[in-house]
């Protein structure tokens, strides 16, 4: 079964905090890129024995900046190359302000059954500091439009720890998000990247981030609001109504194989991880010349893959399955980590059940520290 990611590297404008592979481009480049992406897809499909698609995730960038006919044509093409009879999920990332009912209806008709909306915050002031192109009201309209055309699986991306954000304004964002009744929330703390306008403004002291104590409080508020709304935390940053957990992302967290096409996209098949080139024009040029677009390749040892499975599995609330680990790697987790694991258990940061190793409630806020111990 195949989980496939397609990267669309275009945005309306670069956000102030963004270090992803994305940029502004014109319609001529859109056309050339999609032609190249389809070529990479068809070359990839030709190498596969198993073409049964389980999930397709079209991310970016802002996929919804493409004309809907281009995006639906790409999805349709993908479904001709891969067998969709076992397909569970097609997600498309969209940004408020780039979609209307007509656009969203076209996605639904093309087979998209999950919309992931980059909302980030419902405070217009915070949106402006982030350099987002949409307003809070546009986000509400976009979610409502997705519901009106018939989407019943909608994720909202939210961010906390933003410059100028208070616990109170974060509560308002959470309240607004939950009032829209999404099936899924992905909630991330803002990461400051040095080589971005926001990174430079923070480094120079021009912009100040909320204090650590307030961020911890915001973090607690997420769980409280989501719990009250029936959105169960199933991963460090992900909350969903039962049955709406993201199939595509769970595949990553289970450290299973995944395929990917497009600039900067990373695939991992049979222990070989490959990253594609980041520059869009270079990518298009390579595909035209029939040259590989892979710029980094890494062959993971069984032990490295085992450790990654543990780290990724710990992201999920239910933890990492001991049975799956043993069956896949024939490595005994307890023996492998020895005193390190023993110590984490004694500190009550992780717990071993009969079937899983998982973070405790005490360990969850310290997940990064725990993972460094186990990596
Ligand atoms: S919309 Fe997303 S990918 Fe595009 S610039 Fe903003 S954060 Fe980056």
Strand count: 15
Give the helix proportion (percent range): 40-55%
Number of domains: 2
Per the CATH scheme, the topology name of the largest domain is TIM Barrel
Low-pLDDT residue intervals, each spanning 5 or more residues = none
Which overall shape is indicated by the principal axes computed on the Cα atoms? globular
Describe the structure concisely for a colleague:
With 375 residues, the chain is of the alpha/beta class. The chain is built from 14 helices and 15 strands.
Please give a structural write-up.
Helices cover 43% and strands 20% of the residues. With 375 residues, the chain is an alpha/beta fold. It has two domains: 2-253, TIM Barrel (Alpha-Beta Barrel), CATH 3.20.20; 302-374, Arc Repressor Mutant, subunit A (Orthogonal Bundle). Strand 2 (53-60), helix 2 (68-81) and strand 3 form a beta-alpha-beta unit. The protein starts with a strand and ends with a helix. The protein binds iron/sulfur cluster. The site of iron/sulfur cluster (SF4) has 11 residues, from loops.
Defining key terms:
14 helices, binds iron/sulfur cluster, globular, 375 residues, 15 strands, TIM Barrel, Arc Repressor Mutant, subunit A, alpha/beta, 43% helix
